[in-house]
Task: structure prediction
Amino acid sequence: MKRLSSWLLLSWLSMISLVQAADYQLTLGQGIDVCEACKQNLERMTVHPACEREYSVQFDLEPPVWKPFDVAGHLEAMEQVLYFLAAGSESAGHALSDESQFEETVRRISTKEEPWAYWAQVDINNDGKVEPVLKLHSSLCRSRNDGTIGRAYSAPLVVLTENLNGIDHALTDLVLQNPRQDGRAAGETNYQLYGVFRYKGETYFDRWDDAGSSDPSERFTLSIYASTGETTRKLCRLKELQTKRWFPGLPCASGRCQTARPLPTRFIP
Result:
């Protein structure tokens, strides 16, 4: 009886893994080593890769060492980042019109209410020199299949200056590869969720498009990029097959979706 129970438990766990895993098609980058490795990595994951991707050493993929960002100790940099993501680089560094809004946003980020901030030292453009890379992560993404959630989410990467006092705009422009630019340096980051990893000694970054693009071919895809010097190349695109979930901006399954709003909106997530 005990052996039967163990067998049933293993079978149930296997079924769960099969249900959670998804199939992906390489629509760009067939035969490229890093693309094939990322495809295998996606297909082994048992949770959806949009919000947070795992990078398995089994496929020679290695994530950076992320650590909490000291928001309170770098308020000027945080102010620039929030402005940059909300309005583009031309507004970065200008004084906030409502200081209380900024303080509340900083408090929420510092306490990981929504979103939260991490940073790591990464050689983002493969020039042999590491740069401080900041990542804002939104836990709202974990509710992406729940029709009651209508707030937009994102996980952008921003490259900071060496002293952590502001944004390195040249390097940040290399990283933010968003479908909609609208004349802004940052572009629209809604439903764009970034990650960064190393593969066989080179740095790459990826972007999951969770229905944030106006181009249907870009929706529910993982794009993989590599920056060298001042140039960024798109190497791979993996399309999730048989996607079934609520679409931001369209009626939800429950009929109770709120209108999606960007993150940050007036600096309040």
About this structure: DSSP finds five helices and ten strands in the chain. Residues 1 and 82 are 59 Å apart (CA to CA). The radius of gyration is 19 Å. Residues 2-20 form the longest helix (19 residues).
